[in-house]
Specification:
The chain is α+β, with helices and mostly antiparallel strands and about 425 residues long. It contains nine helices and 20 strands. Strands 10, 13, 16, 17, 18, 19 and 20 form a seven-stranded mixed beta sheet that branches. The chain has a five-stranded antiparallel beta sheet with strand order 3-6-8-1-9. Helix 7 packs across helix 8 and helix 7 crosses helix 9.
């Protein structure tokens, strides 16, 4: 028999640690190669990690809820000698997996409490120490906050692994700065505590820690509300024409493409057209500068049983209706199956969320930082509407409608621009060309 180490994989270049959220096997279980072994949470995605080899799970070294550095050995699998010493790492094994360790050789120590002992494969090969590499690879969100406030991350020692600066560290530093006495000559701005008194559990209550994903969503939403001046505008959009085109060509489209056709590809297409016309809605605020994005990367919020994630359709302006439908369906399916890659939830320039699938008529979604706007789609339903006939007389007709809301950052986008954007989306959908499908 031989022993295979199972490391915490590096799920993206900027990710330095991961949390074991759930073990899918227990000690003594027989596992197949590539069979899901455990689930991890990072600051990007939740994912199932496959077994690097067939065998029997002999040890679990990192328990559920524990956060460790990438390449930390989290478990060991016993397997036969032939399977344990392949000439090359088998497909599916995360990069940097240590070679199989024969039973006669002492097993390596667990690196959970000593990140400096982690393999050098974690780094970028620039000669920096592991601690320095981890610290400078704080999450993109932390780096963004630091840049906006003129904070040099390399000079800080955080509470994360190897001194990595976490989001809580950076926000605490900013809060402490804000709490200091104001500069003479400027009006005093009272400091409001980020958190009020914590509620106490009552007899019979159940207390559970937030999941990694839930905690990250919480932090991200609070940060967004603090960062952007949120305003929301709502338009009613008549989707009758889109509904008729979809009903007429749906069977042909799905037979040709193999993809289920929903309303969302129509909405994405109209949204991209609108973003071209209103570049401020496809931008980001960087201090006193405005970054006008030249890529149209549309994030689509996907509700999961355990939280929310926003996979991104990259270069949506270059995709046909078939391409948009395929990308949308693929990302949503893999999000629910925990198969997304970190880069597939990054670099969005505008987000669409669809609470209407649950029956919600409208909402006021929170902006997905560092974007400046997010569009919410309410329930698509038939409604009686007053329309003007060809003879100029009013009549009541049944129309397929939905409320579209746009939450926007008033630091950059004025109400007139937001309303013009929504009016453009409305016009594109109400006059959607059948030939586009």
């Amino acid at each position: 028999m031989a022993r295979i180490d199972v490391p915490m994989p590096q799920m993206g270049e900027s990710i330095a640690e991961g949390t074991v959220s759930k073990w899918l096997k227990k000690v003594g279980d027989v596992v197949k190669r590539d069979e899901p072994l455990f689930e991890i949470s990072t600051d990007k995605v939740d994912a199932e990690i496959p077994s690097p080899s067939a065998g029997r799970l002999s040890e679990i070294l990192v328990g559920e809820g524990s956060t460790v550095a990438v390449q930390t050995v989290v478990a060991r699998i016993e397997t036969d000698v032939a399977a344990a010493v392949p000439a090359a790492a088998p497909a599916g094994v995360p990069a940097g997996t240590p070679a199989a360790t024969p039973v006669s050789t002492p097993a390596p120590a667990v690196a959970a409490k000593s990140p400096a002992a982690a393999p050098a494969a974690v780094g970028n090969g620039n000669g920096a120490s592991f601690e320095e590499r981890v610290r400078t690879k704080s999450s993109p969100l932390v780096r963004k906050i630091a840049a906006e406030h003129g904070i040099e991350l390399g000079s800080l020692s955080g509470s994360g692994i190897a001194g990595r600066v976490t989001k809580r560290d950076i926000e605490g530093l900013i809060a402490n700065r804000a709490a200091k006495p104001p500069v003479v000559g400027r009006p005093a701005v009272p400091h409001v505590a980020a958190e009020g008194p914590l509620p106490e559990p009552w007899p019979g209550d159940v207390v559970e820690p937030m999941s990694k994903m839930r905690a990250l969503i919480s932090d991200h939403m609070v940060l967004s509300r603090r960062t952007s001046a949120h305003v929301t505008s709502v338009f009613e959009v008549d989707l009758t024409r889109v509904a008729r085109i979809r009903a007429k060509k749906r069977a042909e489209f799905e037979a040709a493409s193999g993809q289920r056709l929903s309303y969302m590809p129509f909405i994405i297409k109209a949204t991209v057209d609108a973003l071209r016309q209103f570049p401020a809605v496809n931008a980001s605020v960087a201090g006193t500068d405005v970054i006008y994005r030249k890529q149209y990367n549309i994030g689509i919020a996907v509700a999961l049983d355990w939280g929310l994630i926003v996979p991104v359709i990259k270069h949506a302006d270059e995709l046909s209706m078939v391409g948009l439908t395929r990308a949308l369906n693929d990302l949503a399916a893999r999000a629910r199956a925990k198969r997304l890659k970190p880069e597939e939830v990054e670099e969005g320039t505008f987000t669409i969320t669809n609470p209407g699938v649950f029956g919600s008529l409208m909402g006021t979604p929170i902006i997905n930082q560092p974007q400046v706007a997010i569009m919410g789609i309410g329930a698509i339903e038939k409604r009686p509407k007053v329309i003007e006939g060809e003879d100029g007389e009013d009549t009541i007709a049944i129309r397929t409608c939905a409320y579209f809301s746009l939450s926007f950052d008033h630091r950059l986008i004025d109400g007139a621009v937001a309303d013009e954007f929504l009016a453009f989306v409305k016009k594109q959908l109400e006059t959607f060309p059948e030939a586009a499908l």
